[in-house]
Amino acid sequence: MNEAIVQAEKALRKGEVPVGVVIVKDKKIIARAYNKRESKKDATCHAEILAIRKACKYIKDWRLNGCVMYVTLEPCSMCMGAIKQARISKVIYGTNNEKDIELPLVISQNTMYKEECSNLLRDFFKKRRNQ
Amino acid sequence: MNEAIVQAEKALRKGEVPVGVVIVKDKKIIARAYNKRESKKDATCHAEILAIRKACKYIKDWRLNGCVMYVTLEPCSMCMGAIKQARISKVIYGTNNEKDIELPLVISQNTMYKEECSNLLRDFFKKRRNQ
């Protein structure tokens, strides 16, 4: 966690919300990152996402099984989702995230396209099963 | 949605799970993307995340207020989180996502570091409020 705090301090010095992450595999740090949302002008550039991208690059696989993430702040829902997508099995965080983002969002289905979109996926998985 | 389907078809041809996205602002497509998880070997490379990154780059802001996302598949929790982080206000999807990822994940707090991590954030927001 000390290394994650060092990362958060880097974010702070650059005027970013200070959040830092390290990802560890077999007791070795394989990725370090800090929040770069402002400098990259990119909503996905939370420290966790950047660290996962680095760790995937290092491992050469999108699966980070057996990796542990140390993060100074409890992850938001985007980052929790990314942690699950990357198959990270353990997360240790420092302080609590009291406000996860809650904004009005309209999400609706266009059922006209349902079959076409669904068929694309069905055919893909069918083909893969048969390989 | 037709354009999103064209993107999903591109993914299909490259052996990726076929999901496609476009982001529209003021009736103009500002970002197109398809799932690249396998080719990039990166768990965060879902179509939605890639499209958000492109749209942020185009708008030169991490805030995509007023943008609408068209996506062939109902977004997973990572992508829903990213949509909210990016302030996208409307999402239209084609087919339903029946399985969101559910894997065993241990998430725990290391309270020894709570104060240090929390102070970093408190000082940052305090300073920003005073500016």
Please tell me about this protein's structure.
The structure is a homodimer of 131-residue chains. The first copy, chain A, has 5 helices and 5 strands. The first copy, chain A, is of the alpha+beta class. Chain A has one domain (1-99): 3-Layer(aba) Sandwich (Cytidine Deaminase, domain 2), CATH 3.40.140.10. Chain A has a 4-stranded mixed sheet. Chains A and B meet through helix 1, helix 2, helix 3, helix 4 and strand 4 of A and helix 1, helix 2, helix 3, helix 4 and strand 4 of B. Strand 4 of chain A pairs parallel with strand 5 of chain B.
Any key phrases for this structure?
4-stranded mixed sheet; alpha+beta; homodimer; 5 strands; 131 residues; Cytidine Deaminase, domain 2; 5 helices
Task: Describe this structure in a few short sentences.
Two copies of one chain form a homodimer. With 131 residues, chain A is an alpha+beta fold. Chain A is built from five helices and five strands; from the N terminus they run H-E-E-H-H-E-H-E-E-H.
Question: Topology of this structure?
Answer:
Two copies of one chain form a homodimer.
Chain A: H1 2-13, E1 20-25, E2 28-34, H2 37-40, H3 47-59, E3 68-73, H4 77-85, E4 90-95, E5 106-109, H5 114-129
Parallel strand pairs in A: 3-4
Antiparallel strand pairs in A: 1-2, 1-3
Anisotropy-based shape of chain A? globular
- CATH architecture designation of chain A: 3-Layer(aba) Sandwich
Helical coverage of chain A, percent range: 40-55%
Largest sheet of chain A: 4 strands, mixed
| Integer-rounded radius of gyration of chain A | 18 Å
Query: What share of residues are in beta strands of chain A?
Result: 15-25%
CATH homologous superfamily title of chain A? Cytidine Deaminase, domain 2
